[in-house]
Amino acid sequence: MIIILDNLDPEILEKLETQATSHGRSLTDEIKVILRRELIKENLEDNASQLEWHEFIDKTAGSIDDDTFVRHPQGDYPIREELE
Q1: What is the DSSP letter of 40?
Q2: Ranges for the Antitoxin FitA-like ribbon-helix-helix domain (predicted)?
Q3: What is the pLDDT along the chain (84 residues), one digit of tens a residue?
Q4: pTM here?
Q5: 55, 35, 36, 37: which is closest to 47 by C-alpha?
């Protein structure tokens, strides 16, 4: 697969080349590493966000300690067909 980056800011290109050289990589390999790292980071952030949500639910579920709080009747559950 060939990907062409046109009109890349010369300052960005220079920084990429400098970074690649300092890491002992080609420019192409450096770009691959950066893209891979950013995608992994994004996935970790998504997972962390989900984990934080689950932790919040675990901490707060059933935590209302107020005698005036009333859960109103929810009605009857509909009867569903049995799964086979």
Answers
A1: H
A2: 7-38
A3: 788 888 989 999 999 999 999 989 999 999 999 988 888 877 777 777 777 888 888 888 777 778 888 888 888 888 888 887
A4: 0.51
A5: 55
d(CA 29, CA 6): 18
Single-letter residue type at 2: I
Element (DSSP H or E) covering residue 43: helix 27-60
| CA angle in degrees (0–180, nearest 5) for 30-15-22 | 55
Q: Which amino acid is at 45?
A: E
Given this model, what pLDDT does residue 27 score? 93
51/43 Cα distance (integer angstroms): 12
Would you tell me how many other CB atoms lie within 10 Å of the CB of residue 25?
14
CA distance 49 to 51: 5
Residue 23 backbone phi and psi in degrees, to 5: -95, 0
